[in-house]
Amino acid sequence: MSDQLPVVVIGAGPAGLAAAAHLVERGIEPLVLEAGPEAAAAVREWGHVRLFSTWGEVTDTAAEKLLAPTGWTKPDAATYPSGADWAELYLQPLADVLSDHVRFDARVTGVARAGRDRVVDADRQKQPLAVHFTTADGTEQRVLARAVIDASGTWTTPSPAGADGLPALGEKAAAGRITYRAPDLGDPAVRARYAGKRTAVIGSGASAFTALAGLADLAKDEPGTHAVWILRRGISASTFGGGEADELPARGALGLAAKAAVDNEYADAATGFRTEAIDRDTHGRLILVGEDGRRLDPVDEVIVLTGLRPDLTFLSEIRLGLDERLQAPVALAPLIDPNQHSCGTVYPHGHRELSHPEQDIYLVGMKSYGRAPTFLAMTGYEQVRSVTAAVAGDLEAADRVELTLPATGVCSGSGLTGAPAAGADDEGGCCAPAPNFVQIGIGTPAAAEESSSGGCC
Predict the structure, then answer these.
(1) Count of alpha carbons within 13 Å of 285, Cβ hemisphere only?
(2) pTM here?
(3) What is the pLDDT of residues 150-206, one digit of tens each?
(4) CA 139 to chain centre
(5) How far is it, in rounded angstroms, from Cα 449 to Cα 447?
(6) Which of 53, 42, 167, 61 has its CA nearest to residue 397?
(7) How far apart, in Å, are the Cα atoms of 10 and each of 104, 201, 333?
């Protein structure tokens, strides 16, 4: 009877919809549960940001086969989509084709073995998986599944400003002046929030680069606009990514744009600064306090871009095997460790590296990487191809994992806001390799730590 049940896919984003497409291709019924009101809800929230991967790298082959009979035309493979482009021109049409298998406003609240909590062994593997979810009107429902593919991502659980992984003291109280997303400075209301203001940007990955580059552009038009870049490490040769050596030109250009923001004095850098508290001055402005006692000059706004982490709360009754540091599957963690790997040096992997002590459940896409920032969409597509083959019992196909990824540079986040959709042959402003940098900025200089190749902070 288990084989007659659907495979529940959590999340109607890029990896989740690709998983559904592969299941349909294999004649297996998927049921996609999406918490948002439409497909790619998370992607749409950063729709203003341009990817540093081209269209040729962000579509899935099984999905393209499903879309072909509808007359769908793939955008120019050499151009770079924005998040909005990706959602509207690919993910939404794919969700439309899969509409009989997708439920929106369906937020998963728990996954377990039917009739067995995580302690019980008796007949455990004979039971299907039970998935609990709530609908838009608050109704609670349950569906049984032969397998569960969790592609819910990490977008809804950003990491805090505190260097110890916990919210800094005063961070929650200052929530009205803090955002955890790269702001859409093309939106007049958002633009007004940062225009003429002093803004701290905490983080060292591609999302931080995007914010710094955007604030630098704003400063050219709005006097008084200035950024303070908060780095937990020092500035080194790898701080700004791969430059012209990056096999993703748009990614290299993004790092160089952040460098230009500092070089042109639109941003200062506070290096070796690990935030412990956020205080206020007499005018209500925010003062960042480091664990070494340093107090930075007041800022009006804070943008926290210190990474993302997986939401594991609804999987508490499932026996997961996760690495204690990255919160990624144990077998996958050493392959994606940002202290050792960039996204281009991740060894090809599939269902075996993504498996858990609990059979028939897989974390895929961004969520599979836990706290590692080195994920690319094409990695997720290969993951779901392998996982769905394993679910179908085709272990030969599941074990045949082949993937070539672009090397060097940082891999988290997305590309420049509003940057032109240049072709892949366009150097995108990568006109020189990243040089060695000396520390600059505020406070007592700290010894530069070796940056992780993944660009995490």
Answers:
(1) 12
(2) 0.86
(3) 999 999 999 999 999 999 999 999 999 999 999 999 999 999 999 999 999 999 888
(4) 30
(5) 6
(6) 61
(7) 11, 32, 22
